[in-house]
Amino acid sequence: MKKLGLSTQILIGLILGALVGYLFPDVGDKLKPFGDGFLRLIKMIVVPLIFSTLVMGIAGTGDFKKLGRLGGKSIIWFEFATTIALAVGLIIMNITEPGLGVHIAASAGDAGQVAAAGKHSINLVDYVVHIIPTNIIDAAARQDMLQIILFACFFGVGVAHIGKDGETIVRGCRCIAEAMFKVTGYVMHLAPIGVFAMIAYTVGSYGIEMLIPLGKLIASVALATFLFIVIVAVIAGAFTRINFFHVLKSLKDILLLAFSTASSEAALPGAMKRLETLGVPKNIVTFVMPTGYSFNLDGSTLYSSACILFIAQLYGIQMPIEQQILVMLTLMLSTKGIAGVPGAGIIVVAATAAAFHLPTEGVAILLGIDRILDMIRTICNVCGNCMATMVVACWEGEMNREKFKRRYDDFVQGKIEEYSQN
């Protein structure tokens, strides 16, 4: 008998949890400690994982003189696209409001956070000052993610500029990150139990109708992803005078692979080869695509922004526009470098939720549909990186409209073997 995959186990946990909560609400209430234990395991991972990956990513690519013009242009476009992704995610969530309709009260453990979130009036000056840590150890102990991110950015830039001595620190951070990726895998294997317990408790306490917002969230994220791809394709087309809808059409089999496997890495080799076929120089493809997998995961950032607002809506917490802007700025940094790792998207959402005083119980509820959301955001990640690679190639003057049209026409006619060697 074939072993069930983790996503299937989580789905089964969701269904069984809903049934137990609906049929035996008293039993569901007693299962809550198992869900709380799973959430604590996720929180345990947050600080070392985000700190090590941020330092590793920034120290490895933070020396912009070394990166030169190509690296600078790539990062400018990455941040531009990431900003659009975050903005689209938040706008669609504010319009559709999938989390409204079923009010869920937070547990006693999160009641203080909810109260703080509900009463907190944002003063941007005070908030910016608060982001600067006076003691990074204290910030890590409190899991103040904004302070940790700021320190990691400064530390990473410093490491990048101390020469060979910094390589030892980068290797250490890489080892820590790899170890934490392993720990993340171990924790995620407990996700079916955590999801089962949290859904059983939630349905038992608030009724089966609380599952309706999850379907609305899937539809909202799918709509936001579609709009993001269209917007970026139009902007990129206006900038380069290339039809980016033809680019997407030529990538349809690659995108199907990304969607079905929910793995950006699985689609990477084919996507790189296809871009070379369409006329993008190999040196640009081999630089921009791998860099984009750390700095340009648009689908993951869009998903994260949508999930943060969904959790706030689910628990009836108001998030004013200035707080949503701070969420955007936080996610622009916290999603760098780890969003492509299975299960890391949930960790980023949990860390950001805690930073903005949102109940992290909502994270366990999201796990039940995370596989579907993962498939959607993976398509967005691959599309975003492929479009970024072509934009940078055009920006560098190494590709033009006529060259692309000729290669595209040859591709659709099945003449791709002509370009396998050049």
UniProtKB/TrEMBL annotation:
Where is this chain's protein located in or outside the cell? Cell membrane
Task: State which residue ranges cross the membrane.
Answer: 41-62, 74-93, 145-163, 183-206, 218-242, 338-356, 376-397
Q: Is Cell membrane set as a keyword in this record?
A: yes
Concerning SUPFAM superfamilies, the annotation shows: Proton glutamate symport protein
Domain of life assignment: Bacteria
Its cellular-component GO annotations read: plasma membrane
Q: Which GO terms describe its biological process?
A: dicarboxylic acid transport
* Identification of the protein by name: Proton/sodium-glutamate symport protein GltT
From which organism does this entry originate? Answer: Megasphaera lornae
Gene responsible for this protein: gltT
